[in-house]
Amino acid sequence: MVRLRQQMNKRGMAVEAQKIQYIYEESKKRKKALGFGKGILLTIFLAVLAGQIANLPFFSILGIMILSILLGGIWGNTLSVPADAQAGVTFSSKVLLRAGIILLGFRLNLQEIFSAGFSIMMIDVVVIVFTMSFILLLGKAFRINKKLAALLAAGTAICGAAAIIAIAPIVKCKEEQTAVAVSCIAVLGTIGAIFYIVLFPFLPISEQEYGVLAGATLHELAHVVAAGVPGGDASSDAAILVKLGRVLLLIPVALILSFVYNRKRANKSSDLNKFPVPWFIFGFLFTSLVNTLFSIPGSIISILLLLSTYLLAMGMAGLGLNIKWTDFVQIGIKPVATAVLGFFGLLAITPLLLLIFRIG
């Protein structure tokens, strides 16, 4: 009888222990989920704040994505990020960022780009090939990190921050390198846009030609839109069309860089899960094709692009929250010099770009 009671007590203690363990695990999961949500909410807050600031004069040139990474950097280096919120911040900087790039494909109508004529596509190809090659060579000459050089090249040649954050996971860049590249491109593009606006009245070219140059040489879409305004609708339409052609070329550039930077790893395995090109690049192509082949109401496209913008902004805020100002000091001045000289090199071929446009 005593033994039976002892066994029952042991069983009761075991059940109680299991209950306590279950409660502990559930509490742990809840705390983890709350922390995850806290991290995502923080990136939402910073993205929304950046969106409001981007509506102010001058700041509109910077755009919401650049402002998001700057706000994230300021927050992360002054107020810090709670440890339990880090998972949510990382989710924003990786998963939501790539989702934003996929939805960005709805901005492209391939039919419009191809119907713009051979000269526009040729200008975009020349810009991409020259700028990528030139900046990668400069990076080699300055002996900066090859992956960082690739980010600077893509940001200058294609579409600024969006290209950088699309290329970064392909070449396996560190977050601080991504932040440095985004910051360099943001400053250069802003200076470039202001320079174009001031210079426009003195240029001996038509409004459409001015738009072509702005669309072919400036970094961010926000920079292109701002610079195109002085020339009216003719320059704005031409600038945006040329710029979207550069965005389209993100796909082949991503594939080439993936092969160059990941071929050793790719040769070791034929497993699709280890295929070196992130699948979100194909998602970007898919959404572009959907927008081209199907007649989607403008209101829906606007909503999708707004969602894309804020997902990208949340991702940029997440990147900013994970960087430290000391990272910039450690990387040094050489990447900045590379980006500046790369932009000057792109500006130097503008006579060739105008010649291609006029011949076409």
Write the layout of secondary structure elements.
Layout: H1 2-53, H2 59-78, H3 86-104, H4 110-115, H5 118-142, H6 146-159, H7 161-171, H8 175-199, H9 207-217, H10 221-228, H11 232-248, H12 250-268, H13 280-293, H14 298-321, H15 325-331, H16 334-348, H17 350-359
Which key features would you list for this structure?
mainly alpha; 360 residues; globular; 17 helices
Question: Secondary-structure element sequence?
Answer: HHHHHHHHHHHHHHHHH
Share in helix: over 70%
Mean pLDDT metric: 83
Largest sheet: none
Percent strand equals: under 5%
> How many angstroms separate the termini?
102 Å
Cα radius of gyration in angstroms: 24 Å
Structure description:
With 360 residues, the chain is mainly α. It has one domain (38-359). Helices cover 82% and strands 0% of the residues. The protein has 17 helices and no strands. The protein is globular and about 95 Å long.
Quick description:
With 360 residues, this protein is an all-alpha fold. The chain has 17 helices and no strands.
